[in-house]
Prior knowledge:
Reverse transcriptase Ty1/copia-type domain-containing protein; single chain; DNA/RNA_pol_sf; alpha/beta; Nucleotidyltransferase, domain 5
Amino acid sequence: MLDCKPALSPSCPNTRLSLHDGDPLPDPYGYRSMVGALHYLTFTRPDISFAVHQVCQYMSAPTTTHLAAAKRVLRYIRGTLYHGIEFTPGPLSLSAYTDADWAGDPDDRRSTSGFLIYLGSNAITWSAKKKPTVSRSSTELEYRALAFASAELCWIRTLLKDLGIFISDTPILWCDNVSALAIASNPVFHARTKHIEVDFHFVRERVLRKDLIVKFVSTVDQLADIFTKSLPTNRFLDLHHNLIVPIPEIEGG
């Protein structure tokens, strides 16, 4: 793949893989080895998280289409080989973006959620994850994603405190779903959301204790969008600059 034509994005824009795409591979070992290596790479390359999350779902019975999708990730990496995460000094504050793609899987209609957490201006942790159950509404899904990101923020703040790093400013959690924000801020809504009662109380408790501030962000400025779906190339390129940058020192050896 060293001589391959680089791709501008790690997955085909506006597409989702399916179990029934393509023909079964005669020997899945090479696919599994490739995807396993890509999974480890997501620890330092958040921009490929969603694409790798997709191909990881077909390890048991990969097809030619799934293999082509995995190779596209390699083509993208070939074009961004000397890119990486850059940490810069700045104010110590925690913030997070959370997003979800409701019923996006064409095979079982399960959803994908993602979050991105910053310490100052530096991305420090991220996630793209398929939900284990089917969500009945986009609001339910977005609120569960909100609760998951809230727990991660609280854990990171506690970890930093144990390391002697105190974050005085209240962490901010950005969400682009108005209904989910209303549930977090208005206890009257809880009668309509008993099926997510545990998540409801978890987020509400932290908002009331001022351990967390939940705010609205427009879809255009939603940085976690890159973790939940295959984006158009221009949109992907706009967001990926918030995650990785060219590192001349790496390129120069």
